[in-house]
Amino acid sequence: GISGKSQLLFAVVFTTRYLDLFTSFISLYNTSMKLIYIACSYATVYLIYMKFKATYDGNHDTFRVEFLIVPVGGLSFLVNHDFSPLEILWTFSIYLESVAILPQLFMISKTGEAETITTHYLFFLGLYRALYLVNWIWRYYFEGFFDLIAVVAGVVQTVLYCDFFYLYVTKVLKGKKLSLP
């Protein structure tokens, strides 16, 4: 199934990214969406670890997240746009999001297969991030905006998905169950 550790990392991503809720107001829509992202991510973690604990496969969800959090934390202190707490936490969220899927991919590699619903979820999660790349190209072309940190992190995340995308297209879209060779 779904990696609880990846979902927990995504909750940390949205929490650290949207701390600006306390310092700046952009619009009611923006504030509402940030709160919805945070609430849904923690609700998902709650459902995995509490409500549906009996169906959670903790024996295969064994990725050590400290191997992601510690280097990402260090990198966010070293490479950021501005050495301020909110900017460092925003940068941390960008870097962490790029690798937050690793526990899920590790879990699939450990079990050797994934249910169809899980593969669809992962495909659309990866597609969401790949569409960010399109957004950055659009913004650069029309607005002249370019954020090297976000672009590099997005490319890293998309590259991590490439092998999964290949298996998804060659197996799942042909009606077969995703199983690793």
From TrEMBL:
GO terms for biological process: protein retention in ER lumen; protein transport; vesicle-mediated transport. GO terms for cellular component: COPI-coated vesicle membrane; endoplasmic reticulum membrane; Golgi membrane. Pfam families: ER_lumen_recept. It is found in: Cytoplasmic vesicle, COPI-coated vesicle membrane; Endoplasmic reticulum membrane; Golgi apparatus membrane. The chain crosses the membrane at residues 35-52, 64-83, 89-109, 121-142, 148-169. It is a multi-pass membrane protein. Belongs to the ERD2 family. This is ER lumen protein-retaining receptor. It comes from Cuculus canorus (Common cuckoo). The lineage of its organism: Eukaryota, Metazoa, Chordata, Craniata, Vertebrata.
